[in-house]
């Protein structure tokens, strides 16, 4: 009971941070206080339905410190932890209870924990058939509860890891279920909102990023969709040395084609086609490069001019693909070297995690060699470590083979 005789319900947030709230008062682990009292408090609250023996608490709190005096250290820690609870306005001895030689979180006050509410929602949505509207309403409630991973400041504690992994998995399932329901309703603005929140928690989920790009496009935000696609491409290259799936790349082509629209005014078309602040060679997505390559093959049938296809590859001294973050840094420098060493009419694209492709039109083999050597020299000035190198190869583009 508080001073007015009112029985408190205690609310605990564990997803995205640790907060205990009683009435209008709260304590949170965002304060710069020592870790062990918070860890003890977290453990007692999460396992509130059972008394915890001193030996178990010592094993959890001092797993890596066998030199401590167990009894003395635990008593001191209990005192410090109860002191943390003071701002809640309830007697700390009533919250952190000692009984029969063990310790426990209070049973005198009702404690509502967000993971219990979250799990109940997930079980309803994922475990039984519901009408779409009821399921969607529950999904929204569940997603609003999941503000981040379970006890993030204790994420490396052995007992936290499996619990966090379980709730993270449930969150992923709930997000994808929500999107599935919203796709049926064609509620693209809502999908965008859900995905924008989800990628902050799950930044490398390609399906979420696909739906984010797709929903932006379907909701009429074409330029934002293209920007989000480019951001995703860079993210996957730089973090994992992989590119998104072919489905994702095909979505880009659809959006790009749709973005051209129908326009009979050549002046406005030229304005739309203008590059803003462009310098150096023309960088394009691989799908665009592919089309330019095909166009070049058609042109040389008629003109007889030469076009060279060039491949630049970054390797380590053993001719193997370098490891991150060295590769990420090197590829950025190689991009700069390529862009500044080519003519503005030359096109290039990223071909893989460690390669660029270049098209060099109206040029001889000797001239192409000179250009590629110039790129290598420029790269070496930007990246002066000797652990990586740029290798290149080139060959003339051949005309299309005519079907007989």
Automatic annotation (TrEMBL):
Entry GO MF terms: DNA binding
Segments forming domain Bacterial transcriptional activator: 113-256
Gene3D superfamilies listed in its UniProt record: Tetratricopeptide repeat domain, Winged helix-like DNA-binding domain superfamily/Winged helix DNA-binding domain
Annotated coiled-coil segments of the chain: none
SUPFAM superfamilies named among the record's database cross-references: C-terminal effector domain of the bipartite response regulators, TPR-like
UniProt cross-references to InterPro entries, sorted A to Z: AfsR-DnrI-RedD_regulator, BTAD, Sig_transdc_resp-reg_C-effctor, TPR-like_helical_dom_sf, WH-like_DNA-bd_sf
GO biological process: regulation of DNA-templated transcription
PANTHER family documented for this protein: TRANSCRIPTIONAL ACTIVATOR DOMAIN, TRANSCRIPTIONAL REGULATOR REDD-RELATED
Protein name: SARP family transcriptional regulator
């Amino acid at each position: 009971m508080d001073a007015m005789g009112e029985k408190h319900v205690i609310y605990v947030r564990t997803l995205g941070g640790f907060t205990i709230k009683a009435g209008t008062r709260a304590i949170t682990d965002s304060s710069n206080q020592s870790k062990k009292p918070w860890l003890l408090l977290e453990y007692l609250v999460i396992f509130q339905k059972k008394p915890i023996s001193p030996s178990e608490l010592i094993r959890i709190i001092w797993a890596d410190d066998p030199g401590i005096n167990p009894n003395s250290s635990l008593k001191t820690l209990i005192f410090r932890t109860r002191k943390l609870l003071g701002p809640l306005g309830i007697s700390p001895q009533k919250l952190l209870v000692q009984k029969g030689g063990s310790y426990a979180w209070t049973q005198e006050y009702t404690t509502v924990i967000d993971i219990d509410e979250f799990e109940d929602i997930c079980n309803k949505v994922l475990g039984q058939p519901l009408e779409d509207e009821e399921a969607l309403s529950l999904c929204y409630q569940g997603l609003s509860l999941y503000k981040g991973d379970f006890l993030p400041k204790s994420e490396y504690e052995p007992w936290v890891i499996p619990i966090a992994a379980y709730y993270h998995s449930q969150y992923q399932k709930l997000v994808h279920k929500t999107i599935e329901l919203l796709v049926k309703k064609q509620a693209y603005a809502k999908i965008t909102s859900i995905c924008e929140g989800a990628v902050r928690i799950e930044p490398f989920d390609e399906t979420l990023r696909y739906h984010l790009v797709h929903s932006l496009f379907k909701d009429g935000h074409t330029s934002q969709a293209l920007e989000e696609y480019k951001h995703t491409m860079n993210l996957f290259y730089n973090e994992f040395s992989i590119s998104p799936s072919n489905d994702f790349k095909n979505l880009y082509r659809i959006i790009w084609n749709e973005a051209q629209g129908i326009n009979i005014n050549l002046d406005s078309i030229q304005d739309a086609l203008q590059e803003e602040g462009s310098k150096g060679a023309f960088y394009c997505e691989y799908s665009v490069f592919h089309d330019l390559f095909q166009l070049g093959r058609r042109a040389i049938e008629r003109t007889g001019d030469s076009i060279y296809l060039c491949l630049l590859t970054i390797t380590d001294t053993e001719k193997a693909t370098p490891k991150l973050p060295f590769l990420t840094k090197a590829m950025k420098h190689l991009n700069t070297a390529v862009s500044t060493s080519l003519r503005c009419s030359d096109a290039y694209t990223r071909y893989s995690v460690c390669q660029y492709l270049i098209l060099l039109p109206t040029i001889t083999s000797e001239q192409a060699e000179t250009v590629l050597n110039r790129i290598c020299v420029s790269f070496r000035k930007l990246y002066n470590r000797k652990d990586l190198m740029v290798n290149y190869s080139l060959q003339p583009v051949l005309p299309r083979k005519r079907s007989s």
